[in-house]
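Budget justification note: compute hours in this period were largely spent on complex prediction jobs such as the one shown. Inputs:
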Amino acid sequence: MHSKGMTAATADRQAEMAALVRAHQAGVWRYLRFLGCDPTEADDLVQETFLAVLRKGFEVRSPAETAAYLRTVARNRLLMARRQQSNHPPVVDLEAAEAVWARVAGEDGLSDYLAALGDCLQKAVGPRARQALELQYRDRASRAEIAAELRLAVEGVKTLLRRARSALRDCVERRLGR
Amino acid sequence: MSPVPDPKRDELEDRLMDQALREVLGGETPPELSERVLAAAEKQKSVSPQRKEPVMSKSRGIRWIVGALAACLVVGVTVALLLPAGRFAREAARGPDASGYMMEPQAATVPRAAPSSEASADDESSTAALPQAEPGVGARPPAEVQPGLPHQSATEHKRVLSADLDIPFSVRPLDNEPVPIEPGSEPAISLEEAQRRQRFDDGALWGTSPSGQGPGKGGDQYDRLVENPFRLVKDHPLSTFSIDVDTASYANVRRFLLGEGRLPPPDAVRIEELVNYFKYDYAGPEDDVPFAAHIEAAACPWTEGHRLVRVGLKGKEVGNEERPESNLVFLLDVSGSMNSPDKLPLLKAGMKLLVEQMRPNDRVAIVVYASAEGLALPSTPGSEREEISAALESLRAGGSTAGGAGIELAYRVAQENFIAGGVNRVLLCTDGDFNVGTTSTGDLVRMVEQRAKQGVFLSVLGFGRGNLNDAMMENISNKGNGNYAYIDGITEAHKVLVEQMGGTLVTIAKDVKIQIEFNPARVAAYRLIGYENRILAAEDFNDDKKDAGEIGAGHTVTALYEVVPAGMEVEVPGVDPLKYQTPAAPKDDGATGGELLTLKLRYKQPEADTSRLLEFPLVDQGTRFGQASPDLQFAAAVASFGMLLRDSPHKGTATYEAVREIATASKGADASGYRAEFLQMVGRAKELAEAAGRDE
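Corresponding output:
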């Protein structure tokens, strides 16, 4: 192999890698958060994941395969990190979490899911439930605060939010056909 | 597996929703880490300069070969009806995950390696993403230097692949057999997985393959189904497909709507299986042909100006009295997963219904498989009904499944009791939790194919809910000249095993293929509704080696085409004008009598190896929809319903209300009540769609 050819190949490789990182870093980060990482740990493990992939060499294939591969690498990185700090076991059952992610979130790192959710928030839940969700997630209000705002019992807020999330899940899944 | 939702999964799905809401409402978006990662990558590279290109090139080379082979396979698969890759997964609802198989680090037939040590985590020599485990791969020279390979037809190529690589068709369900995560070893994705994924993932390849369409990517509970698009007659004058008498999707959709009170996922809806669920009043054949063909055109109810063409086939009726003597072997799954009211008890009840039809000269044997396979009942004359029933009654569920040895035993029993000129059939009843034990799936498929050639056919009856191995069930029933039905209740068991017993047991014609040649003077474009996974290449029509669907006694098969008349505008991207050749000019319309199309059928007698050809031209009389036969109208309503459930881009002006009106008007006598039940489903779907705010 001539050195010139190798340089070109390396440049292509770099471009490929950059594209891979840009396309998937957000998805991998979300996935790691889903697996129980806090934001800082997720930042670090995203980096670890791509570095591991780069060390191994990676051929970009279909989006689904690529995403699945990255998730496995990310999971392994998480496991290794957690082993090093042995007092800090994974928060969720990784296999089950992966199964749910692969089924529901799919290959695009949750983008379609989030888009569908935006739509479902308008269509699948009533105004009161939407208000409760906004109070909880946007304003970070506690259940008691939400209860006061909506003039409900705390228990009622719990039920309202649970039902709303469940309706949203149904709606999103239907929209995604998953 | 279980109809009860898995609490862990439920919790995780809720967790995912929680996270998504934090992002959508709470603004907790992922940071932009690209620059940081790339900078770190740059640093890593300078620290370890010995990372050599050649290593990568080698593995890249292998991946390219795999990619090329997989791409060829995709083409092969589209033309090979033998492997209707996408259909099965939609049949029964399944366990939590299909994408989980992506994480499966080993091929299904390759024993799982012991977890590798952490030290190997970054071991460059372990192929990152593609298999070393597959013996055929490493040994195969690069595709581009392999003489002859590019000249092989896609089909031949696929055969070569299947033979060499022993591609299993099954997917191990994640919930049955958790995939251990092996820290330190990145997943080696096996070749079969790569091919599978290529098949499922690369929608573009399906879209451009000669046979046109097929399933899209592997979703989860159901593989994505890409509906057949309109095709221009000037570019594609021929439409070729294999018949399909399966109806599993209908039973599944019914359970979603009436059983669970929710809309089915779009990909669970296979329109041809919905349409074919119903019996239509087609006249049977009069001469010695095994089936009659009926073809009719009328206005398309959902798109103004389009025409709807219905092709209806009706297999010769064979009454229970005329049915040839039957040698049946029930191969029953009694594994632990069958221990649920909708499985083993239903299976026993269903089999008893069948046993009641048995005549003294018929024979029934029962083979069970679970942790150990065994002969629960040696071949017993039909006159000994009580003994057969008692043997069924004594079955208990327990143990894990090892179907491979069971199926071998079943075939052996069938062969030992072979009735020349009779029905010799193994009926495999399972919830799909079928693993092949020591036999590889490839061997199993070959055995089933081989036994079908020797005259022992295979039928598959699915019970219960939630299994990924529907894939294999469907597959082996196709290879075994059989049929595949999904039994969701005793009514369905009655339909399949009593009312349609002739069709289930007696094959009257095999490898039935349909080819339609459209007259470009009359038709601008057409679209086959459903049958996405049954599309064949035009040249397969005359290829007697090319397997296709079977038709059983009394079966009706209906296919609908939506046709855009010549002169009407079609939004279909055509191809650019050819540079080196002039397209053939259409024949003078007068000379062909103004025919819209010609229907050509090929079939073989059950024992024959060469096919016969039938041709039927159709002249469109301009019939309005309301003047069409009630059967065409009802079939159109069912197709329309399917398109609504799928939220199809081709649904046009269809609404659930319109479906209800048409189906009510064309319901006919409906002695069995199936059409009334359909109306009930339409009503339920309408309510659910309204509640969900889904547009019609």
